[in-house]
């Protein structure tokens, strides 16, 4: 079996552990996968695991490594934006989230719009926030978090 195949199997196992709530085990497995074959996805998911432990700086560092490996992969841009929102760095978050929107290889596309809405909402810019929540809903009409956010902001503004 090639190292890339082994790395991918370990990556899948890490993801399973993460979904089971075994974040520390997932972190170790992601690191093993990366040691065999570094990929943008593995670094991004390792970052996500770090974020679940509240380790946002480590999460951001992993996403930067992911971007270095594949600048067209949009997920790490969105994730950095999300982590920066958690660190109350809204303007910097918005910059990263716009990069996610422009990324060639990115699914699900509605998340950066939603996260920009979150950043604007935290800044107290409710009209701008609502506009981005609507953009997220244009992309994914059934996106419940965005729909709820629009209703909440609309009620605040009335």
How would you characterize the overall build of this protein?
The protein is mainly alpha-helical and 158 residues long. The chain is built from 9 helices and no strands. The chain folds into 2 domains: 107 residues, Serine Threonine Protein Phosphatase 5, Tetratricopeptide repeat; 50 residues, Serine Threonine Protein Phosphatase 5, Tetratricopeptide repeat (Alpha Horseshoe), CATH 1.25.40.
Q: What's the tally of helices? A: 9
Q: Please state the CA-atom Rg, rounded to the nearest Å.
A: 17 Å
**Overall form:** elongated
* Fourth-level CATH superfamily of the largest domain: Tetratricopeptide repeat domain
Q: What is the architecture of the largest domain at the second tier of CATH?
A: Alpha Horseshoe
The helix/strand series, from N terminus to C terminus, equals HHHHHHHHH
Describe the main β-sheet briefly: none
| CATH fold annotation of the largest domain | Serine Threonine Protein Phosphatase 5, Tetratricopeptide repeat
Structural class, from secondary structure content? mainly alpha
| Proportion in helices | over 70%
Question: Distance N terminus to C terminus?
Answer: 62 Å
Whole-number tally of structural domains: 2
CATH class bucket of the largest domain: Mainly Alpha
Number of strands: 0
* Unreliable residue runs: none
Which percent range describes the beta-strand content? under 5%
Give the rounded overall mean pLDDT: 97
């Amino acid at each position: 079996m090639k190292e890339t195949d082994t790395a991918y199997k370990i990556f899948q196992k890490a993801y399973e552990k993460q979904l089971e709530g075994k974040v520390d085990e997932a972190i170790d497995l992601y690191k093993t996968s990366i040691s065999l074959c570094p990929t943008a996805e593995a670094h991004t998911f390792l970052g996500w695991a770090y974020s679940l432990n509240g380790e946002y700086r480590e999460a951001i560092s992993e996403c930067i490594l992911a971007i270095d490996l594949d600048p067209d992969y949009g997920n790490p841009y969105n994730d950095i934006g999300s982590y920066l929102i958690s660190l109350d760095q809204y303007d910097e978050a918005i910059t990263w989230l716009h990069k996610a929107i422009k990324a060639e290889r990115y699914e699900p596309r509605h998340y950066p719009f939603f996260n920009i809405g979150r950043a604007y909402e935290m800044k107290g810019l409710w009209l701008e926030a609502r506009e981005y929540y609507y953009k997220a809903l244009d992309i994914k009409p059934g996106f419940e978090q965005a729909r709820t956010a629009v209703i909440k902001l609309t009620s605040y503004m009335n």
